[in-house]
Amino acid sequence: MPAFAEPAIDPPLADSYRALLRSDERAGIAAAPATGSVAVLERDLPMIDLERLRSGDARERKACADAMAAAASEWGFFQVINHGVGRQLLEEMRREQARLFRLPFDTKEKAGLLNGSYRWGNPTATSLRHLSWSEAFHVPLATISREDCDYGKLSSLREVMQEVADAMSCVADTVAGALAEELGHAAGGGESTFPAGCDGTTCFLRLNRYPACPFAPDTFGLVPHTDSDFLTILCQDQVGGLQLMKDARWVAVKPHPDALIVNVGDLFQAWSNNRYKSVEHKVVANYKAERFSVAYFLCPSYDSPVGTCSEPSPYRPFTFGEYRRKVQDDVKRTGKKIGLPNFLKHSPVHGLSS
Predict the structure, then answer these.
(1) What CATH number does the domain containing 240 carry?
(2) Is residue 327 part of a domain?
(3) Residue 10 lies in a domain
(4) pTM of the model
């Protein structure tokens, strides 16, 4: 009897890679230097123990918040332990995530799983420099528990995703509140809650898979970028591959089994008047091993003004919706994100285009 091939689970990343490689060669675009040819230091991010924020000692709480603020200013990234997201829950999420991504590619792409939140590669890529060797489900929190959100046969995925989203939401709120208070924002509920306009219906959970890549060792799993939110909470596995820009060079982030990674997004940099830094980062695909991660994005509603911690601010007033639309327009027009420079009161971007 003839043998039937198993349905492919990977998106056609190899086809995209080869097509873009030919396009780059025709255009005379040189390949980026291989990661292996440039020394990339592996560094431990600043480590913050969130248990200190729950201390009865005011000096301990202040020291913890000070350490977070220093890391957000110097690195734009730090890691947190004693964060309250259980290891067992994260391991369960990893198992469910693996089951989800093991589905045939056609099922993931066409079946409307998780309300059509699946994406892969980069549909706007015109060069290998724009290709992301990855696939993901980018899920609005508002849809996770809705009855019309299609989970296919993965009936247990919904509950685990909701638990992870709720737990990471608590971490994001705690960290964002402490960082805002360091800049003079009053703590408390009601109108003083920070960030304004963020709740369980406005944030996102993103499930990522980076398949093993048989091509060049410098292939992007995720192209260099900054995050367009207030804060990102990331749980990564032990494969590694996350790199961030520090002192004008790429630094590899050493995985830590008990830590979550926190990074400042563009909106927090704008709100803080550039005191906290939204730092460029990327993922480098692994030659032999696939990589999984889960990211929680703390985002406001699209009509929420981003605001500022104090005046004068270098940025003109804008909403999250305006920011997202401008990013999408720039990527479509230029192939890359411009981001915050568009919203400076005295924007060099505007000066170049006028």
Answers:
(1) 2.60.120.330
(2) no
(3) no
(4) 0.93
